[in-house]
Amino acid sequence: MKPGVLLLALCCSLSLSARPLLVGISQDVLPDQRSNTISFEQQLLQQLLTEMGYQVEFVPAPHARMTRMLQQHQLDIAARQGGAPQQGLFYTQPYLQVDNRVFALASFHGALNSVQDLSRYHLASFQNARTILGPEYAAVVHKAPSYREVIHHAQLVDLLKKQRTELLVLDKVTFERRWLETGGTLSEVKSYVLFPAASHRFGCHQADVCRVLDLHLQKWQQSGALQQLRQQIRAQQNSQN
After folding, report:
1. Helices 40-51 and 225-239 meet at what angle, rounded to 10?
2. pTM above 0.85?
3. I want to staple 175 with a disulfide (CB 3.0 to 4.6 A). Which of 9, 102, 136, 170 is the partner?
């Protein structure tokens, strides 16, 4: 069967479900007090799943819980699935490459040449970083003087701003946006590249749903629509800073 015919057949079959799909997204994409949070992933999933003929109900959840919620069928789809694939779950191809970095104030004079060097400093990061960044990072933060993972990125960046942590781990785009929102300038901070680029996928507990979602995602990537949406969201975010 040709891919286009397969896609149409699967869409017709799947769209018969009357129940909205439960889709897990990070709690950090919830609008803040100024209602200026714009989620690329939420808009992408809304448009892809609408194309597939589904209604969608978004479920904000901590990163660390979403994989387990998929396994327990509390979610149909979850965003930002990274790390090793889990048995019994299904995944799309990557939809986002993330440049995770270590950030410090410009006055920081420590030497950071490898992940192992992080063990000497007070450290904070995004939630579920120990899973996403791998076993070496997980072992290192266990040795650090203090370590915490924070759900909300604005609160995480605030820890560095108020010097309540020496180092902060977050993806470059998110950090810079959140830092500028505090009224700071990028000359006040510096960053260290210690991690390879991380890939984010959508995870599902139903193989058929994941297969169709992946086919639609491929179409968006090939047509340039995925990058266009990403640029559109970034422009909206920048206009609000």
Report:
1. 140
2. no
3. 170
